[in-house]
């Protein structure tokens, strides 16, 4: 279906995507998320997610239309200038889909089948959330739990930065934290908190212990993990640093920690 007017009411899901506060308010409440780029849309469809509509540049029609198949989903097509007027930014990837959010599983359902999980405590930056999910997928962790105040993994930027892996990695919100540490212990997880502490254990030393089930807990960008989260941990671990640097960006720290655990288990 051709779109020639940026104010066309049929494409309201895509209008003004640069307004971060509006997207945060409307996407979860409305039961939708946005998948941007042909690769991410394909991953969403492969994960069994249901599109409400798709907005494309003409060159992507032949590639994506077969993926939509016989679903009763409108495919809107517009040239690049119209796409930019709708979304508020240049759509270099030329494709975006409005997707229905899947129902999140119960935390216990994920924990029963997992050996390594990552817990994100109040991480505010969507880019960091997306980057952590990409590391989880690439380095073989099994699931992610996010706390109530953590940024939305299905926000457009998180999905894009993750390269669509937030649509593949099992995840859910844990409704209470750090009380939720009790649930991790009930399922046999050793809770390892990444934090600066006088009694912290070197990451390499911890990885050599190779606990059977590990929950790696990461804290918010500015202040790190809360004191209560650290108190609930079985071990506090740290990544040794040089040149007066005390820590890495949280997404980088997650990648290093997951790599160390994965390397030990090979």
Topology:
Elements: H1 20-30, E1 32-36, H2 38-46, E2 51-56, H3 61-68, E3 75-77, H4 80-87, E4 95-100, H5 107-113, E5 116-120, H6 126-139, E6 143-146, H7 156-161, E7 171-173, H8 181-186, E8 190-194, E9 201-202, H9 203-209, E10 214-218, H10 227-232, E11 235-238, H11 250-265
Parallel strand pairs: 2-3, 5-6, 5-10, 6-7, 8-10, 8-11, 9-11
Antiparallel strand pairs: 1-4, 2-4
Helix pairs in contact: 2-3, 6-11, 9-11
Descriptive report:
This protein has 266 residues and is of the alpha/beta class. The protein has two domains: 92 residues, Ribosomal protein L30/S12 (60s Ribosomal Protein L30, Chain: A); 159 residues, 3-Layer(aba) Sandwich (Alpha/beta knot), CATH 3.40.1280. The chain has eleven helices and eleven strands. The protein has a seven-stranded parallel beta sheet with strand order 7-6-5-10-8-11-9, sandwiched between helices. A four-stranded mixed beta sheet has the order 1-4-2-3. Helix 2 runs parallel beside helix 3. The longest helix has 16 residues. It is elongated. The mean pLDDT is 88.
Q: What keyword list fits this structure?
A:
266 residues; alpha/beta; 60s Ribosomal Protein L30, Chain: A; Alpha/beta knot; 2 domains; seven-stranded parallel beta sheet; four-stranded mixed beta sheet; elongated
Q: Nutshell version of this structure?
A:
The protein contains 11 helices and 11 strands. The chain has helices at 20-30, 38-46, 61-68, 80-87, 107-113, 126-139, 156-161, 181-186, 203-209, 227-232, 250-265; strands at residues 32-36, 51-56, 75-77, 95-100, 116-120, 143-146, 171-173, 190-194, 201-202, 214-218, 235-238. It starts with 19 loop residues before the first helix and ends with a helix.
């Amino acid at each position: 279906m051709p779109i020639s007017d940026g104010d066309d009411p049929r494409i309201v899901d895509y209008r003004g995507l640069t307004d971060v506060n509006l997207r945060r308010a409307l996407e979860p409440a409305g039961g939708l998320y946005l998948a941007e780029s042909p690769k991410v849309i394909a991953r969403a469809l492969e994960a069994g997610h249901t599109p409400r509509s798709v907005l494309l540049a003409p060159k992507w029609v032949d590639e994506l239309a077969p993926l939509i198949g016989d679903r009763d989903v409108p495919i809107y097509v517009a040239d690049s200038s119209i796409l930019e007027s709708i979304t508020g930014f240049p759509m270099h990837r030329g494709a975006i889909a409005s997707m229905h959010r899947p129902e999140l599983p119960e935390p216990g359902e994920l924990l029963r089948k997992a050996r390594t999980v990552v817990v994100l405590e109040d991480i505010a930056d969507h880019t960091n959330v997306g980057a952590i999910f990409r590391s989880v997928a690439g380095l073989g962790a099994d699931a992610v739990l996010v706390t109530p105040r953590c940024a939305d993994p299905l926000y457009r930027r998180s999905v894009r930065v993750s390269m669509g892996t937030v649509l593949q990695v099992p995840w859910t919100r844990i409704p209470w934290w750090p009380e939720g540490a009790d649930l991790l212990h009930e399922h046999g997880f050793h809770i390892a908190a990444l934090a600066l502490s006088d009694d912290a254990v070197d990451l390499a030393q911890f990885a050599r212990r190779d606990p059977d089930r590990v929950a790696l807990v990461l804290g918010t960008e500015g202040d790190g993990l809360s004191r209560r989260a650290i108190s609930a941990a079985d071990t506090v671990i740290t990544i040794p640093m040089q040149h007066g640097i005390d820590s890495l960006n949280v997404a980088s720290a997650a990648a290093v920690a997951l790599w160390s655990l994965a390397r030990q288990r090979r």
